[in-house]
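Severity: low
Component: inverse-folding endpoint
Summary: output formatting inconsistent between runs
Steps to reproduce: submit the following structure tokens with default settings.
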């Protein structure tokens, strides 16, 4: 912290130097291979047992809190639109606020989509302002540390830099972790398709995990947001999973149960996803969807690109597994 209490900012040159020194190599499992997972009780040496689940959800089941909130930004009297930070505050208020999910002293991982070498205007990655709003809320709720990480598809250096997420996160005092081989550990997930796989430990070795995807079109899955965003925890050859993409998405959402899902729909990639690249394929919506149910969040958010839940097999799989409900309208829903 600086003397005035603000979090330190970094010069552009220093930022780029630090970014370069933090770069890792994406893909490949950690050579730690068969070591037993040291937190949560699951690992590749555990040859038997139930399906492994990493559950970060709150135990607070209060009936007074909304379970899914749609926060839409409309122009004020002066014609200006609310910021992502304002939209997130409005979304979290009916849910009990961020302090319902984050406790003082927590180490929190924020998991955006930082998969592509694209700028925010292309809507292929999570909007940096949405990521920044989540970081700020987490710190305000008392988080000891906030870590931002993802397993990029393109070169991580360029993805983290061009997305604007690295600079935004660092400016707010969050730690940014790029994928590197030593951060992966082979883990027995016991999924239908994902049995034993290298996992990006930074993304799961925390007290709380907040999933912050971007809503967009996907050429294979048809739509991607919260459930598909968990692909970022995987190392190895993820493209091998594309032939059974719906099963792998359901397996990942079974493995990862976030404390909170915050879907960025500030600018939405309507077609030619997941990479995009053409601004004409995007649509400004100025919307944030927050939920405690990752299945319901995706089932609602897919309507933003004109998709329907019945066309997304992974939603039905998640629903049938009891991860969440695809019938979002049965939840306590609020639009603000």
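Observed output (run 2 of 3):
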């Amino acid at each position: 912290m600086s003397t005035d209490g603000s979090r330190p900012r970094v010069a552009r040159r220093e930022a780029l130097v630090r970014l370069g020194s933090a770069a890792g190599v994406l893909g490949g499992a950690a050579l730690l291979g068969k070591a037993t997972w040291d937190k949560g009780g699951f690992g590749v040496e555990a040859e038997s047992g139930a399906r492994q689940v990493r559950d970060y959800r709150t135990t607070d089941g209060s009936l007074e809190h909304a379970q899914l909130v749609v926060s839409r930004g409309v122009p004020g009297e002066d014609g200006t639109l609310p910021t992502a930070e304002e939209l997130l505050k409005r979304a979290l208020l009916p849910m009990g606020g961020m302090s319902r999910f984050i406790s003082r002293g927590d180490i929190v991982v924020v998991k955006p989509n930082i998969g592509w070498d694209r700028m925010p205007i292309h809507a292929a990655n999570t909007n940096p302002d949405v990521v920044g709003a989540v970081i700020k809320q987490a710190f305000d709720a008392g988080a000891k540390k906030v870590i931002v990480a993802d397993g990029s598809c393109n070169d991580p250096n360029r993805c983290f830099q061009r997305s604007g997420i690295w600079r935004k996160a660092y400016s707010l005092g969050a730690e940014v972790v790029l994928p590197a081989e030593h951060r992966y550990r082979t883990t027995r997930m016991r999924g239908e398709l994902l049995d034993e796989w290298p996992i990006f430990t930074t993304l799961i070795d925390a007290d709380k995990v907040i999933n912050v995807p971007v809503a967009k079109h996907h050429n294979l899955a048809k739509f991607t947001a919260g459930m598909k965003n968990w692909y970022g925890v995987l190392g190895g050859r993820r493209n091998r999973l594309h032939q059974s993409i719906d099963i792998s998405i359901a397996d990942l959402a079974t493995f990862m149960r976030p404390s909170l899902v915050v879907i960025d729909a500030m600018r939405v990639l309507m077609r030619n996803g997941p990479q995009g690249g053409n601004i004409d394929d995007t649509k400004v919506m100025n919307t944030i969807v927050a939920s405690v149910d990752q299945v319901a969040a995706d089932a609602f958010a897919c309507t933003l690109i004109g998709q329907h839940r019945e066309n997304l097999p992974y939603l039905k799989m998640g629903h049938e597994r009891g991860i969440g409900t695809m019938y979002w309208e049965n939840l306590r829903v609020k639009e603000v």
